[in-house]
Design a protein that fits this description.
Number of helices: 10
Radius of gyration: 19 Å
CATH superfamily of the largest domain: Medium-chain alcohol dehydrogenases, catalytic domain
CATH class of the largest domain: Alpha Beta
Bound molecules: NADP nicotinamide-adenine-dinucleotide phosphate
CATH architecture of the largest domain: Alpha-Beta Complex
Largest sheet: 7 strands, mixed
Distance between the termini: 16 Å
Shape: globular
Order of helices and strands: EEEHHEEEEEHHEHEHEEHEHEHEHE
Structural class: alpha/beta
Length: 312
């Protein structure tokens, strides 16, 4: 099969189309013919070697943690049949930038009616991150004040909609050019971080979700309610320090490590069916142009998501 692979860590130029074998499907796995693959920052972090302490040195390596496609093969007793349209988050092993992937059934969800392949591929990892981050430190209750930093990005744009679907009062933080966009996602209030420092506001929040990890628990602790929690997507030493001291305070520090849970993806897909959530894909690239997609994502200026089209 055709795949976009790296043969060593490095810049976007390391991404090359290569013929590789179709992955073997294990028991309880589906073989999926991929139509589209989502692009996430973790892909370029793996590509440039920042995560090699986890990802090792086995090459060639197919990147890509999000897929949408059609079931090609399934176990005879599987609830999925060949021809079913599915989407999934893959594990850190990746494998999404290719024509086929083998995926555990419990990571997969059926694509809801009306959702196209590119839109579906843009959702799993980013939307699951937001969904699972909100579960940390207790579910959102109707009326809870939730602040989302980085609200216009991949994770943030889903976070705004998921928090609204869970009936929170949402404050979204983004730059000037994205204020209308995050309003269109349903944010009740928008703070433009280029003109105002959200950590100095008088309002107190039940949850501060730092989707882009640009702030810190130290700065955000003052805007948390008494029993509020701060969750970031990229923990650093400071976060680990404050997290270790959580038992001494009612305000908690934490981070999210997203897991590829099909059951959580089903809830997200139900939000789509109920009209409470829509993906925003900024640009679709052919698989061959994955390097360009990486260059663009690395600017940290993308609104919503980028997707690679495997079957146009
Ligand atoms: N731990 C996990 O399980 C996990 C899971 C998913 C993602 N992540 C990490 O989470 C981070 C965000 O992922 P993503 O997919 O949302 O990235 P992304 O889509 O590339 O984020 C781009 C967005 O970041 C915003 N941004 C840039 N600088 C900002 C700042 N100083 N303050 C507020 N917003 C800013 C930009 O909006 P403006 O142009 O308006 O500034 C842009 O819309 C990445 O580091 C990723 O690796 C971790």
């Amino acid at each position: 099969m055709k795949a976009l692979v790296i043969n060593q860590y490095g810049g976007p130029e390391q991404l090359r189309i290569q013929e590789t074998s179709i992955p073997d499907r294990g028991k309880g796995e589906l073989l999926v013919r991929i139509h589209a693959a989502g692009v996430n920052p973790v892909d370029f972090k793996i590509r440039n070697g920042s995560m090699k302490f986890i990802t090792g040195s086995k090459f060639p390596r197919i990147l890509g943690g999000d897929i949408a496609g059609v079931v090609e093969q399934a176990d005879p007793k599987s609830p999925y049949r060949p021809g079913d349209k599915v989407f999934a988050m893959l594990t850190l092993k990746g494998g999404g930038y290719a024509e086929f992937a083998a995926v555990k059934e419990n990571q997969v969800c059926r694509i809801p009616e009306g959702l196209g392949m590119a839109d579906a591929a843009s959702m799993p990892l980013a939307a699951l991150t937001a969904f699972q981050a909100f579960k940390k430190g207790g579910d959102i209750k109707p009326g809870d004040k939730v602040l989302i930093n980085g609200a216009s990005g991949g994770v943030g744009s889903f976070a705004v909609q998921i928090a609204k679907a869970q009936e929170a009062y949402v404050t979204a933080v983004c730059s000037t050019g994205n204020t209308e966009f995050v309003q269109s996602l349903g944010a009740d209030q928008v703070i433009d971080y280029t003109t105002e420092d959200f950590t100095k506001k008088r309002t107190r929040y039940k949850k501060v979700f730092d989707a882009v990890a640009k702030s810190s628990f130290y700065k955000c602790r003052k805007i948390l309610e008494k029993d509020g929690n701060y969750i970031t997507t990229v923990p650093n030493k400071g976060l680990f320090f404050f997290k270790a001291l959580n038992f001494t305070r009612s305000k908690k520090a934490g981070f999210i490590m997203v897991k590829p849970e099909g059951s959580d993806l089903k809830i997200i897909s139900d939000y789509y069916k109920e009209g409470k959530l829509r993906p925003h894909v900024s640009k679709i690239f052919p698989l061959e142009d994955g390097a360009e997609a990486h260059e663009l994502l690395e600017t940290e200026r993308v609104r919503g998501k980028l997707v690679l089209s495997v079957i146009p």
